[in-house]
Each structure stands twice: as C-alpha cells, then as structure tokens.
Amino acid sequence: MPEILAMAASSRAPIGKESLIAENGLRNQKKGNRGMDESELLTVPDGWKEPPFTKDDNPRGLLEESSFATLFPKYREAYLKECWPLVQKALHEHYVNATLDLIEGSMTVSTTKKTFDPYIIIRARDLIKLLARSVPFEQAIRILQDDTACDIVKIGSLVRNKERFVKRRQRLIGPKGSTLKVRKVVLDTMKNIHPIYNIKTLMIKRELSKDAELRSQNWERFLPQFKHKNLNKRKEPKKKTVKKEYTPFPPPQPESQIDKELASGEYFLKESQKKQQRMEQIKAKQAEAISKRQTERNKAFIPPKEKPVMKPQKASAETKIDIAVLKEKVKKAKKKKLGALTAEEIKLKMEPDEKKQKKK
After folding, report:
1. Phi, psi of 284 (to 5 degrees)
2. CA distance 143 to 122
3. Partners of residue 173 on adjacent β-strands
C-alpha cells in the first residue's frame, strides 16, 4: 500500500518545464492529425509490433501468488512424463513453477516472488490445458509468445444425438488430424452449417484487406450470404396426443375398493359367502380356458375342404382322332427297317443307272 500511495502522490506533483513541453507537443500533434485521413489513424502500419513486457516495466514483482491446476487423462501420462523437463525449463525463464502429479493426474502452475509479468500465469494455464488436450509440446509452447493466443471450444454438449455429433465433428478434422482454429467456424459447424461457407468468407476478407481503398469500407456486399434451409420435413409422430380442454375443476376422485364393494353389495356379505363367490369365479375362468383349449385341439381333426371334381369334356368332332390313318402309319413303320431307304429314295438312285445302260 505505501508503494501505491507514493505513486499516487508523485502523479499530483507540480508541473515542470519538461511536462509543459510534452503537453504542447501533444497538442501540436493533435492539430496535425486533424488534417490526416481517419482511415490512416485507424489502420495499424505494416510491420508494427507491440514492445515486449520486460522486467524493467515491473521491477518490484507481484504482491500475491496465484496458481492454476488442470487434470489430464491417463493416456497422456507417458507423454507428459517425457516432455515435463522441457515444460519446466520454458516456464522457469518467466519465473513460473510447474508441478506434475501422476498420482492425482493433475498439472499445476504457480507464480513466484521473482515473477514480473502479471499475464504470464494465464499463458501458463493455457499451456497446461493444451498439453492435457493432446496438443504436442512444440505447438503448445507457442502460447507463451505475445502474438499467439488459444481458444478451447467444448463441443460435447452442443449436439444431443451421438451420430449427428460424430458426423459434424468429422467436418472439423482436416489432414493428419489437424482441426479448424476459428471459434465461429467450430460453433457454426456444430449447428449444421458447413465450414466451407465460413472459410470462403475468411478468404474473401483476407483479399479485401490487401486493397488500400476497400480496407476502410463495409464488406457486406462482397461476403456470401448463407441461408439455412431445412429441406427435410419434420417427421410426425405415429401416436398424436390430443390436448384436453382446460377445466378449472379437478378430475373426479377414483372409486376405492370399498366403494366398488358397496355398489355391488359384496361389502355386506359374510366371509364364507365371499370365499364361495371367489371360488365360483375361479371355476368359471377355468371352464373358459378348458373350452378354448378343446376347440384348438379339435381344429386338427377338421377335414380340409376338397376341391370340386371337374367332369371330362366331350371331344369335339374336329378333335377326333382318325384311327385308320394311325393304323396305316404303324404298318409302314413295322415294314421299314432301321436305316432302310424309302421307295422314293430308291427310285432317285436307280434313275442314273438306267440312263447309263441306255447309252451303252
């Protein structure tokens, strides 16, 4: 507290010559800036980098110690055990302690008295989170740099259906298991918007940022407009529940067993009479069951329905067989030997022989 009060007191000190010169210089600079274009003031010049935070910016260190811890899965234990000396060495340069607890399965980072950068503990926290989520050490260590940031998106609770979740997550995974590194793209993908639309807009924005004239203009007219259209109609349930009309009166109270017995008169019967009535009901049920069983057994003895006998139709006059012609064919077949020539074939063979004899 004395240090803070001393700083406050020094800020209220009387203004000297140097402070007046600095104030006049700022006023002149503001006057000169009024003549400049506003787009030039808004844009960051190429190659400009924010100066790094050094020990001279905070020579007295931090007042309180802060720490962060995170759990890691069992399958990451072997990898973390190997690369943990490198993690400790990288964090020790920024005066941050790192401990690995293999029994509890946790990693912890904490500041020390020599830590001068107040934001380094946040970067160390992100480092152990990335290591716990299967990011290699070579990639995760880049988070300690000022120009690098990370964002961990939990997508497990965004989609209820497991099959849909797996399909949409597959869209995010690229070659060699590399995933998309833009939060909006990831969230839109889990909402069933394909990442190609967002990637296309990012490519267009990168090209537009190169143009000096379009840099300060609105880019909405150049960007593609995506309209989500659900073409598949919602399937209607088979059983539709019809809502009953609202009535302020409660439903009637159901009848109890005693009310039913009073209505049927069974309540006033003696115990022996009730027992006899129950036995009659049991016998009636048994008789029904026996009769059903008997009918099922008798089904096997029921003869099947016979098909009606078809009477042979009388042969018409056209379809009558000529018996005489058949007899002649049979006689010819008997006279003819197997492989023997017919009378016509014999005549055809004899004709050339007769012609030769006549010539002689």
Report:
1. -65, -40
2. 10
3. 179
Residue 119 and residue 112 in contact, taking contact as beta carbons nearer than 8 Å: no
Which helix (DSSP H) or strand (DSSP E) does residue 109 occupy? Answer: strand 106-111
- Structural contact between residues 108 and 159, judged by C-beta atoms closer than 8 angstroms: no
What average pLDDT does range 177-198 have in this prediction? 76
Dist CA 28 CA 18 (whole Å): 16
Q: Are strands 96-101 and 106-111 parallel, antiparallel or unpaired?
A: antiparallel
Across 17-31, 153-167, 173-187, least confident range: 17-31
Q: Phi and psi for 118 in degrees, rounded to 5?
A: -70, -20
Per-residue pLDDT at 72? 94
Decide: helix, strand or coil at residue 309: coil
pTM over 0.70: no
Coil, strand or helix at 249: coil
DSSP string for residues in 18-38: HHHHHHHHHHHHHHHHHTS-H
In whole angstroms, give the CA distance from residue 144 to residue 280.
89
CB of 121 closer than 8 Å to CB of 66: yes
